[in-house]
């Protein structure tokens, strides 16, 4: 089977990231969200996962993972999602600003 063509490499300083917030229905425990945060952080393309109230704010690289794949991962972890809202792309950041 043929390999798909490789994605062109984009210099790190020009990479664009997306922001998305995920709310939950019937959230039972904040500890469960911590487990989910760890699970998502380990996925390729996830830049940051942070709590915003009872929501998770996820910053991700759309070249590596899609919002739909993130939602699927959350559902597979047993969470029921409320509406998810994606924001506009975050402007390119200087690679020296990354942690």
Describe this structure in words.
Helix content is 22%, strand content 28%. The longest helix has 12 residues, at 30-41. The chain has a four-stranded antiparallel sheet, with helices on one face. By secondary structure, it is of the alpha+beta class. It has helices spanning 30-41, 67-76, and strands at 18-25, 46-52, 55-60, 80-86. It is globular and about 35 Å long. The chain has two helices and four strands, in the order βαββαβ. The chain starts with 17 loop residues before the first strand and ends in a 13-residue tail after the last strand.
Strand runs, count: 4
Which range best describes the helical content: under 10%, 10-25%, 25-40%, 40-55%, 55-70% or over 70%? 10-25%
Order of helix and strand elements from N to C terminus: EHEEHE
Biggest sheet: strand arrangement: 2-3-1-4
What's the layout of helices and strands?
Blueprint: E1 18-25, H1 30-41, E2 46-52, E3 55-60, H2 67-76, E4 80-86
Antiparallel strand pairs: 1-3, 1-4, 2-3
Descriptors:
globular, 4 strands, alpha+beta, 2 helices, 4-stranded antiparallel sheet, 99 residues
A few lines on this structure:
Helix content is 22%, strand content 28%.
